[in-house]
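Sanity check. The docking grid for protoporphyrin IX containing FE depends on where the pocket ends up, so I'm generating a full predicted complex first rather than guessing from homology. Inputs follow.
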Amino acid sequence: MNFTNSVVGKKWMAIAGLAWFSYIIFHMVSLLIFHQGEQSFNSFYQQLNQHSLYQIMVVFLVMLFSLHVVTAVVRQIANNKSKGRGYKKSYPHEIPRVAAWSGASILFIFIIVHVVQLKLFVNDHWYQITVELLSQPLMLAFYLLGVLTLSVHLHHGLSNVLQTLGITQRSYHYLAISISLILFVGFLSILASVVL
Ligand code: HEM
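Predicted complex below; grid placement will be based on this.
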């Protein structure tokens, strides 16, 4: 048994997912400053980028992202190779495998393109760049798709964690839906404020 398919590998995948989940809450809440206008938004990101702790967090996020993706892919390949259909693990909540992987692939592409667009080439004027980007119909559609697939992926991930912990009560599943929905609406509010 190799690392990615071992219990340790699964644990790291969950830790990486959880770290990203925390970051996404932080990112969505900080993006809401966008509604306060250009000056507040730019000065927030200017101050944030001056903290070395923040830069270290971004490096950790990239490492955990790679770990999460590689573990997921290796586990899927190992699962596909399992002898006989009876040995194949079914996907949680009967989500068709192809749908889950298409969503994850779109999210993967979105995160890479987004980080390149807003992190690697922007060190000032975050507000103006965001407005310019989201004013292009194609980019707006791309961001909408990214935010949508993120919410679905998060709901799937949170439900998975609950299932692993043996929590099957309906109320917890409503909680997973509510968290994903709140994040979706928060990100959507930025897209809407540029368009409307
Ligand atoms: C309305 C949608 C979004 C807008 C307007 C937006 C805006 C931004 C901005 C302005 C930055 C640059 C921050 C900096 O330089 O410090 C950034 C970075 C980043 N965003 Fe987003 N974002 C959006 C959605 C998302 C989503 C859905 C994800 C995750 C799936 C995400 C992940 C990241 C990551 C990983 C970074 C680089 C790390 C960082 O600087 O915080 N973003 N985003």
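Relevant for the grid: The chain has a mean pLDDT of 88.
Also worth noting: The longest helix spans residues 52-81.
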